[in-house]
């Protein structure tokens, strides 16, 4: 087609590679089939000569300002490949999901919506987020790597956040009327909870699947359905 196309920037996990994301069917095939441009940037190498990368989800900017980096990649891709910058979502798996949460909280205007998979904020969680956001979090019920409640890693030096506290933070940020969801849906393998009594322009959903630490089959269509239902008009 002629475009401009909606876009999905998909972030790899800790130690991962952008090229592997592009070769992972569950991450790209459904989105491409539905007319999305898929962008997979590469995280900074963890050490010299390392082919895998990581994201600065902690916010220690002495390494690299990854919020600015992802915005720069998005702007460049939009200008070169007829992608609608105003209809671009940010998604990510595991460590990429953690970075997705960080951008959503710290700089929500960077992308039209956010779709983290199996990644959480780090503790201590921020006291507040910068503004209302559209976010759809997906997680495995039996995830041992990033459990729903989080866990200590790196010998206890850092601790993953609790997903439910993160959702509470977003409900407060989005001005939701209550903590309890007002919408429930079972769609294929996904059990979905929705908060719709929130500020205009915001959106918050959470889906569980029965698997572990993975991007589940059907993720692409599920997220595209959600994104398109938001009704974001072309720029």
Give the assembly state of these chains.
single chain
Report the C-alpha radius of gyration, rounded.
17 Å
Task: Show unreliable segments.
Answer: none
Helix share of residues? 25-40%
Strand fraction: 25-35%
Order of helices and strands: EHHEEEHEHEEEEHEEEH
Short description:
The protein is of the alpha/beta class and 235 residues long. The chain is built from 6 helices and 12 strands. The protein has an 8-stranded mixed beta sheet with strand order 2-1-5-6-7-12-11-10, with helices on both faces. Strands 3-4 form a two-stranded antiparallel ribbon.
Q: How does this model look, in words?
A:
The protein has helices at 18-22, 25-33, 66-81, 95-106, 163-173, 219-229, and strands at 5-11, 37-39, 44-45, 53-54, 83-93, 113-117, 134-140, 152-153, 158-159, 183-187, 190-195, 203-209. With 235 residues, it is of the alpha/beta class. It has an 8-stranded mixed beta sheet with strand order 2-1-5-6-7-12-11-10, sandwiched between helices. A two-stranded antiparallel ribbon has the order 3-4. A hairpin with a 7-residue loop joins strand 11 (190-195) and strand 12. Helix 2 crosses helix 6. The longest helix is centred in the first third of the chain and has 16 residues, at 66-81.
